[in-house]
Amino acid sequence: NSISLINWIYQSEINLIHCVPSFFKLLVSSDLKENYFQNLKYILLSGEKVNTKDLSNWYKTVGDKVQLVNLYGSTETTMIKTYYFIKPEDANKLSIPIGKPIPGTQLFLLDEALKPVAKNSIGEIYIRTKYGTHGYYNNEILTQEKFIKNPYATDRNDLLYKTGDLGRFDSNQDLEF
Question: What is the average pLDDT across 137-165?
């Protein structure tokens, strides 16, 4: 049960947790006591949308001494490619941004013609990174569909990964999913 898990986190002096938001919900829905997380410094959330109600409950009990971080990426780009440091006031938002690119990564929001979308407009998220894969094993059709030549580079090997996800940049240039 979640109380056993929280006791283990406390007794083991865990200082970093990387989990999906549905696992984080287990921590939040328990009978939390602030001192349970005295050693915890970060909770990294990835793989699912962060529920702002869970954030509200967390901050009411634990406060802001543990830094929550929303992460985004895909397996094809070797996992995490964006980060956003969640703040207590984010619990009042409709959704939590997925943030800014990590070093070695660029994000593009493009329309169907592979042109950048206008400011504050929604576009498909494309990821450029030298740390990604270059395609799918024995699936050339899917590789050609998802790994496209970067239309803004002259190098033929410069690829963008087409995520299929939609996003837009907010006023702080953080990417909203």
Answer: 95
Is residue 37 within 8 Å of residue 126, measured between CB atoms? no
User: 3-state DSSP call for residue 169?
Assistant: strand
Cα separation of 140 and 104, whole Å?
26
- Write the DSSP string, 50-116: PPHHHHHHHHHHHTTSSEEEEEEEEGGGTEEEEEEE--GGGGGSSS---BEEPTTEEEEEE-TTSPB
What DSSP string runs through 122-166?
-EEEEEEETTS--S-TT-HHHHHHHEEE-TT-S-TT-EEEEEEEE
Residues 90-106 pLDDT 10s: 999 999 999 999 999 99
SS3 annotation, 4-57: HHHHHHHHCCCCEEEECHHHHHHHHCCCCCHHHHCCCCEEEECCCCCCHHHHHH
- Our measurement of the distance from residue 165's CA atom to the centroid of its chain's CA atoms, rounded to an integer in Å, reads 12
